[in-house]
């Protein structure tokens, strides 16, 4: 009977509500009805605000000014145009929308009798509905759209219709015009050569920009959920060019975009034929005994596992990595940021079944999920400005890269979601065995330089900090301003645009204790990183060409895998 009921539950869950959209909201409603006293207090609070709003409406109706009783959140740009305040009718539309939606969100976040995760899930999915219903998203309730249509004699609507048709054809709300950029033409233009290729990745070695380079190379493990050239955008933003200009010899991973034929590729292959492959290729190419490894996002998580694997596989003096750098990386997934709304047993079971049918997870599905985390700024902003205002999105290299999605092989991604995100086994000593070795982060003794971003909603900095509590050896931690991308793609400029906090970290420190002692610096953390990294990379030697007789040029950078759709 229990087995039958479980099968019925899983069938209903998988077909009616596979991603858990409705269930948390229903649970929240039932929880409020089960707590009548708390519900009465909330209704009283709402009634008080509605009376203030009613008074505001009466005053505006008779032509009197009155301060807004409810203001938009500081990052809410939807009602920035003065018409939403200056004209009484539109001011009331705005105020009533904000009053209702703010109270709905507050009630969901404070639902009694529910776990914090379930509250956040309910609030997230309800927020998608109330964001979609905003008056700014519709022509007849958006005074700015109507004003632009009148000023342009309908031309803005005609342009908007063209943008709508283009988005419809693309199957996405485009954030920038894809024709503005081309990889290898005005993105990823740093000269170099593909010197190694297997069925999983290409390894690019970049041509030096200085006559002398440090003897020991830098290898960069990039995330395979996006393409590598986020670190090599236009020249002035390129981390690759910056490293070369510091006299570093740089190798980077460019992962293949998987298809159905790679459905059975597991994480062991990504570690052995990916991370280990670039480490060994760089060592053999340069003749150096050790490399200096860098991992970004999920590439950093893979690098963390590799470091634990290597410290188990090799004798201490033979570990092929001298030190390592992590960029916005999680190893502890207990609170993985806003993406936790998609992580539960039912959602992962649904995604796994979907991947099993196709052999992969389509990159557009993942990109859509991440865009929902910031739907006002990453979806509805482009709907309003494109479809209603007729404004073509401006060229933006980061957004072009964000739309250049990749796929995930079924076996690897299912394992990653279940073992790391769902069960959080990476922080458990020897709970995971990868490529024949049990993984324990405490075995890692090599010096670590770790960077997080204060506005990162994908790898929240408090959680990214926790790597310092698991690994041994010296650690330096940096908290950059901005978010997951711009906190890392952060070249030095004059005058400084951003700032960062930096201090050594100790295994017993909490994130709050580290923050209290960290010094705030203006500018880019790249300069601090170079002060830490370059003295470790050995003496200066004659610069090496991008390719060699032993490792001939298979293709010019950026290679062919990055161009696969």
Offer a concise description of the structure.
The chain contains 19 helices and 17 strands. With 565 residues, the chain is an alpha/beta fold. The mean pLDDT is 92.
What does this structure look like?
By secondary structure, the chain is α/β, with parallel strands linked by helices. The protein is built from 19 helices and 17 strands. The protein has an 11-stranded mixed beta sheet with strand order 15-14-13-12-7-6-4-5-2-1-17, sandwiched between helices. A hairpin with a 2-residue loop joins strand 10 and strand 11. Helix 12 (345-358) runs antiparallel to helix 16. The radius of gyration is 26 Å and the shape is globular.
Total number of helices: 19
Radius of gyration: 26 Å
Poorly predicted ranges: none
Question: Strand tally, please?
Answer: 17
Estimate percent helicity.
Answer: 40-55%
Give the class from helix and strand content and strand pairing: alpha/beta
- N- to C-terminal separation? 47 Å
Strand arrangement, major sheet: 15-14-13-12-7-6-4-5-2-1-17
User: In one word, what is the shape?
Assistant: globular
For the sheet with most strands, the description reads: 11 strands, mixed
Mean pLDDT: 92
- The percentage of residues in β strands lies in 5-15%
Helix/strand layout:
Layout: H1 2-16, H2 22-33, H3 36-61, H4 83-86, H5 88-109, H6 116-132, H7 143-151, H8 155-170, E1 192-197, E2 201-206, E3 212-214, E4 218-221, H9 239-245, E5 250-255, H10 267-286, E6 291-296, H11 298-313, E7 321-327, H12 345-358, E8 360-361, H13 363-372, H14 375-388, H15 397-403, E9 408-409, H16 410-422, E10 432-434, E11 437-439, E12 448-453, H17 461-464, E13 475-480, E14 499-505, H18 511-517, E15 519-522, H19 525-533, E16 540-542, E17 555-556
Parallel strand pairs: 4-5, 4-6, 6-7, 7-12, 12-13
Antiparallel strand pairs: 1-2, 1-17, 2-5, 3-16, 8-9, 10-11, 13-14, 14-15
């Amino acid at each position: 009977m229990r087995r039958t009921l479980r099968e019925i539950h899983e069938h209903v869950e998988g077909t009616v509500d596979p991603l858990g959209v409705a269930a948390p909201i229903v649970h929240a409603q039932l929880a409020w009805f089960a707590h009548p006293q708390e519900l009465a207090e909330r209704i009283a609070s709402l009634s008080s605000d509605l009376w203030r709003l009613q008074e505001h409406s009466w005053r505006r109706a008779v032509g009197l000014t009155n301060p807004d009783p409810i203001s938009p959140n500081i990052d809410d740009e939807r009602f920035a145009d003065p018409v939403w305040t200056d004209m009484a009718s539109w001011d009331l539309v705005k105020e009533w929308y904000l009053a209702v939606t703010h109270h709905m969100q507050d009630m969901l976040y404070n639902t009694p009798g529910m776990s914090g995760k379930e509250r956040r899930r309910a609030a997230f999915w309800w927020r998608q509905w109330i964001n979609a219903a905003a008056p700014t998203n519709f022509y007849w309730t958006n005074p700015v759209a109507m004003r632009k249509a009148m000023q342009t004699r309908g031309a803005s609507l005609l342009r908007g219709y063209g943008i709508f048709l283009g988005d419809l054809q693309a199957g996405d709300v485009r954030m920038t015009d894809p024709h503005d950029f081309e990889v290898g033409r005005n993105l990823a233009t740093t000269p170099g050569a593909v010197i190694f290729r297997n069925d999983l990745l290409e390894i690019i070695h970049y041509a030096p920009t200085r006559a002398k380079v440090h003897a020991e190379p830098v290898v960069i493990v990039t995330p395979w959920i996006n393409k590598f050239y986020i670190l090599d955008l236009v020249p002035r933003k390129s981390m690759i060019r910056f490293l070369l200009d510091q006299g570093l010899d740089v190798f980077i991973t460019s992962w293949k975009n998987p298809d159905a034929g790679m459905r059975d590729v597991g994480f062991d292959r990504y570690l052995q034929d990916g991370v280990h492959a670039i480490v060994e290729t760089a060592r053999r190419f340069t003749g150096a005994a050790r490399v200096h490894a860098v991992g970004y996002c999920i590439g950093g998580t893979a690098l963390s596992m590799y470091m634990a694997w290597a410290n188990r596989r090799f004798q201490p003096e033979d570990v092929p990595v001298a030190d390592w750098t992590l960029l916005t990386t999680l190893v502890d997934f207990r609170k993985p940021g806003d993406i936790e709304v998609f992580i539960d047993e039912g959602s992962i079971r649904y995604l796994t079944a979907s991947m099993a049918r196709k052999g992969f997870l389509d990159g557009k599905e993942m990109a859509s999920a991440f865009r929902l985390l910031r739907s006002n700024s990453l979806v509805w902003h482009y709907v309003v400005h494109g479809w209603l205002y007729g404004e073509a999105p401006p060229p933006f290299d980061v957004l072009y890269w964000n739309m250049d999605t990749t796929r995930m092989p079924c076996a690897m991604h299912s394992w990653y979601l279940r073992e790391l995100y769902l069960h959080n086994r990476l922080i458990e000593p020897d709970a995971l065995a990868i490529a024949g070795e049990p993984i324990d982060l405490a075995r890692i003794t090599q010096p670590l330089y770790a960077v997080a971003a204060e506005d990162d909603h994908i790898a929240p900095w408090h959680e990214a900090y926790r790597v310092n509590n698991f690994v041994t050896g010296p650690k330096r931690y940096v908290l950059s301003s901005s978010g997951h991308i711009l906190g890392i793609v952060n070249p030095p400029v004059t005058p400084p645009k951003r700032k960062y906090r930096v201090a050594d970290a100790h295994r017993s420190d909490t994130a709050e204790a580290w923050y209290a002692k960290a010094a705030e610096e203006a500018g880019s953390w790249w300069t601090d990183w170079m002060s830490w990294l370059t003295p470790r990379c050995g003496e200066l030697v004659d610069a090496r060409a991008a390719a060699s007789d032993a490792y001939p040029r298979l293709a010019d950078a950026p290679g062919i895998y990055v161009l696969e759709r």
